[in-house]
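Today's session is about reading a structure prediction critically. Students often jump straight to the picture, but the first step is always the sequence itself: look for stretches that repeat, for charged clusters, for runs of hydrophobic residues. Only then move on to the predicted structure, which in these notes is written as discrete structure tokens rather than atom positions. Here is the chain we will use throughout the hour.
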Amino acid sequence: MNALTKLAAVNLLLQSIGEAPTNSLLTNSGSITAEVSQASTELDTAARSLQLSRNWPWNYDTKVTLNPDVDGVITIPANAAKIDGHEPCTDVVIRARPNGQMALWNRTDRSWTFTAPVVVDVTYTYDFDQLPEIAKEYVVRAASRRFQAKELGDQADDQFNDLEEKRAWFALLKDEAASSDANLFRNPYVSRMAWHRR
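Below is the predicted structure for this chain, in token form.
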């Protein structure tokens, strides 16, 4: 199965309002329309909203070790949206330094400086093309519903799109549950308990 690209997703949104497809998303081509720009924005908004709504198996890592540089500063990966200390006693957040650089802030000491590596849990955000296909499907449905509502305002279409969005959402949750079950049974203790209960 070919991966759904952002260009193809934008064209699905355009198709939903009866617009012709586009060959490019590059604004410097001089031929991009307002509808193409709006469709692209709706996709980006829906993708970011989905990723920040909860920690999904595909955008969340636990026990990530972040190391301070020579100045004791821990810079943040560009696509890290949320960071929490893995241990309850580790109270850290992402904060902009005076120079604008995003770094880890030690809330306990009220300092940018760390003397040792910090173990954290990280929620990442990805561009549309980097998302798993099941997430792309939901993003397209959610973006399409909002895009059609803004462009056409048809109540019947909105009800249909709302149903399609909910179906995509439940499929996403089902995929998450399947992934969680698989990860759960990689735990040797859980696997032994499940086996002995047979």
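Discussion point for the tutorial: Strands lie at 60-66, 80-85, 92-96, 102-106, 118-124.
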